[in-house]
Design a protein that fits this description.
single chain; 2 domains; ten-stranded mixed β-sheet; 29% strand
Length: 293
């Protein structure tokens, strides 16, 4: 068998793209960590069991590394996380059956929505890459003015009275190209905190339930939760819109607001350039069904 590891440049493999949803409540985030349950760790273990069983010829088991489009924090959820993994060229599971095969082994709070083989052969830089190829990411944050047991797993219940008119005023500040140092958590691996936000909007999706949508080319660590936390401070009268604007330009974390809790945040979608988006058709069909519905 030629396949030994997805790292081996001379090894022929199939690159599999996965569209993943998960409830992050009981996980320590996306990234694999020793002795702690993570989304990546569970997926890698399941891929190892599934694809090695389907192609095993007695050789030592390779390492199956899941590469996600981004890393979500502990307690944060994913509806449209995209990841890729290299699997043996000898894999015998038909493409249309891969999602079902993986879901049969996954816990019920992690699901593969779709799976697609995007490249076959020797690994090159031109191959699809879930993280480095992403062009547009969308997050949504759910907020409750009134408590309900049916929503609190996926939303933040704010007990104080909100002046909701200030939510959108705060959101407007973050549109455009900015350095988001003031609205992020420190990450020693991040050298550049500049992101271009294409959409930043609050909407009341039903009475007492608000949803924040933010779309950008990239996000830095803690950025969305920092923005939501600052927006709530504005709606509670704790900070003015002018103060938030000054904080954004200051590039100083001492001017940040407390982070919003993780449970309201969902990685909604990740999109790629035309012709390289493995799930473009999936999203087009979903949009069509939404219109018909």
């Amino acid at each position: 068998m030629k396949y030994a590891s997805h790292h081996a440049s001379a090894t022929e493999t199939k690159r599999l793209a996965l569209l993943i949803e998960y409830d992050g409540t009981r996980y320590a985030g996306w990234q694999r960590q020793p002795q702690i349950a993570s989304i990546q760790g569970v997926l890698e273990d399941v891929c190892q069991a599934t694809f090695w069983e389907a192609s095993n010829d007695g050789s030592p088991s390779p390492i199956f590394t899941i590469n996600g489009s981004g890393r979500t924090d502990a307690g944060v959820h994913g509806r449209g996380q995209v990841a890729h993994v290299d699997i043996p060229i000898e894999n015998r599971i038909a493409e249309e059956k891969i999602a079902r095969a993986l879901n049969a082994r996954l816990p019920m709070d992690i699901r593969i929505r779709a799976a697609k083989i995007v490249d076959v052969g020797i690994c090159t830089r031109e191959r699809f890459h879930a993280r480095f190829g992403a062009r547009r990411r969308e997050y949504r944050y759910n907020l409750l003015e009134e408590y309900t047991v049916f929503r609190t797993r996926y939303a933040w219940h704010v007990r104080q009275t909100l002046q909701t008119a200030f939510l959108q005023e705060a959101a407007d500040i973050f549109c455009g190209k900015h350095n988001f140092t003031s609205f992020s958590k420190h990450n020693p691996a991040t050298e550049n905190y500049v992101c271009t936000v294409q959409e930043s909007a609050w909407n009341e999706v039903e009475r007492g339930t608000w949803q924040y949508t933010i779309v950008a080319d990239r996000f830095v660590y803690g950025m969305v939760r920092a923005i939501v936390g600052a927006s709530i401070d504005a709606a509670l009268g704790k900070r003015s819109i002018g103060e938030l604007r000054v904080a954004l330009g200051a590039e100083n974390r001492e001017l940040s607001s407390p982070l919003a809790p993780p449970e309201g945040l969902i990685l909604w979608s990740v999109r790629y350039e035309e012709g390289r988006d493995p799930f473009a058709e999936y999203y087009e069909n979903e949009a069509a069904m939404s219109v018909l519905g």
